[in-house]
Design a protein that fits this description.
Layout lengths: L3 E12 L5 E10 L5 E8 L2 E9 H7 L9 E8 L2 E9 L10 E7 H14 L9 H10 L2
Antiparallel strand pairs: 1-2, 1-7, 2-3, 3-4, 5-6, 6-7
């Protein structure tokens, strides 16, 4: 049985007040880290950002607004087009500002990816190997 899912999507990035432009989002899920989805955003072969997202939060974000910190998600509908709006906030700058990037992903493609992850590890069936985790922390990993 496969314990890994990967999907690449073209998403729309909006930084500040700029227009949207397409970038690639490489989504990956590994049963060894059952609560997380890794999203790597790239353009012209360069990695723009890497985020580890909570799988349940992504799923919930397709239904309604979630998140209050660095990551905020909510569904957006423009007629027949359904998107997930993902807002990513960076670290505070010395001037008190905080950079923000917004990514719009086609909701049906993201939902299909999440269904594949649930085929590997169903929600509520996630297991954390605490002994392995503690050994890694103690080793300084």
């Amino acid at each position: 049985m496969n314990s890994f899912v990967h999907k690449s999507l073209v998403v729309q990035l909006q930084a500040g007040t700029t227009d949207r432009f397409p970038v690639l989002a490489h989504l990956s899920y590994d049963a060894a880290d059952p609560f997380a989805v890794t999203a790597v955003f790239s353009h012209d072969g360069r990695v723009l950002a890497r985020w580890r997202l909570d799988r349940e939060m992504l799923s919930d974000g397709l239904q309604g607004p979630v998140g209050v910190g660095d990551v905020r998600l909510r569904p957006v509908s423009t007629g027949v087009w359904q998107e997930l709006r993902m807002e990513f906030r960076g670290d505070a700058r010395p001037d008190g500002g905080r950079p923000c990037a917004v990514v719009f992903a086609w909701a049906p493609a993201l939902a299909a990816f999440l269904r594949e992850t649930r085929d590997i590890v169903a929600p509520g069936r996630e297991e954390v190997r605490i002994d392995d985790f503690l050994a890694e922390v103690i080793a300084g990993g």
